[in-house]
From TrEMBL:
Protein name as catalogued: Uncharacterized component of anaerobic dehydrogenase-like protein
Record lineage: Bacteria, Pseudomonadati, Deferribacterota, Deferribacteres, Deferribacterales
Pfam family for this entry, one: Nitrate_red_del
Superkingdom of source: Bacteria
Coiled-coil region list: none
Organism: Denitrovibrio acetiphilus (strain DSM 12809 / NBRC 114555 / N2460)
SUPFAM superfamilies listed in its UniProt record: TorD-like (SSF89155)
Key words, A-Z: Chaperone
């Protein structure tokens, strides 16, 4: 794998589209990992966004595993007559069968007890509250669930659009997001991906995890680039 961590793809005119793309993709990933797929329009959205996402990640990472993951997603999406039922079965077997499946919450991976609803949940809950995020969900899942952590990133990217001309607020927001990605989102995505590999999971959701892991990794690099120079925001 040949990933160029130092390549800066951000220019002055690119900041707003980057913020928009971050918001869109984090929301898309959040929706897919939130529950069994019920909104079929998500499949259309993913299909329409796939080439853009692949091109964006390929600019800084040449990885055959990542290429294969995109190919699996395309093949799955090409069979729309069966995909809804297939994804429902795959999500259930991958994430909803207790000890037989992979947990999507952080506490079981990082708490000393290895159980749900531990300090990791309280930590992210306080972060959500301090940012002004109010979670309106009918599904009882803990705040440290992967889908909700991804939704928080979508929320923050959206909020950045309203302060794009306020350098101080934007920098503070980027710092908060970089910290959250490095300490919460990426470790959880990595843990879920590794657990899925140990379960020998394959198919749509395994491929989506591989893509998500690279997306979060690159997004962390991008945000750190944006805050590395407070005066220039990495802008030429």
């Amino acid at each position: 794998m040949n990933c160029n961590k130092d390549k800066n793809i951000i220019s002055g005119d690119d900041v707003k589209p980057v913020l928009q793309a971050r918001s869109i993709f984090y929301k898309l990933f959040s929706d897919f990992f939130y529950d069994i797929l019920e909104d079929n329009s998500l499949l259309d959205h993913l299909f329409a966004s796939l080439n853009t996402l692949e091109q964006m990640l390929a600019m800084r990472c040449d990885d055959p595993v990542l290429e294969d993951a995109f190919q699996v997603i395309r093949e799955e999406l090409s069979n729309r007559n069966e995909i809804e039922h297939k994804l429902a079965r795959e999500y259930t077997s991958s994430f909803l069968l207790g000890g037989y499946s992979v947990n999507l919450s952080a506490s079981p991976y990082f708490s000393p007890t290895g159980t749900m609803y531990q300090e990791e949940r309280s930590e992210v809950k306080n972060i959500y509250i301090s940012s002004g995020l109010k979670l309106n969900t009918n599904k009882k899942i803990p705040e440290d669930h992967l889908a909700l952590e991804l939704y928080y990133m979508h929320y923050m990217a959206n909020r950045d659009m309203s302060v794009i001309d306020d350098k101080s607020k934007l920098i503070n927001s980027f710092r908060s997001q970089a910290d959250f990605m490095e300490n919460n989102v990426y470790p959880l995505v990595y843990a879920v991906t590794k657990a899925s590999e140990k379960k020998r999971n394959t198919g749509f959701y395994m491929s989506l995890l591989i893509i998500l892991k690279e997306f979060v990794k690159q997004d962390t690099e991008t945000v750190n680039c944006l805050i590395s120079d407070e005066e220039e925001l990495c802008l030429d």
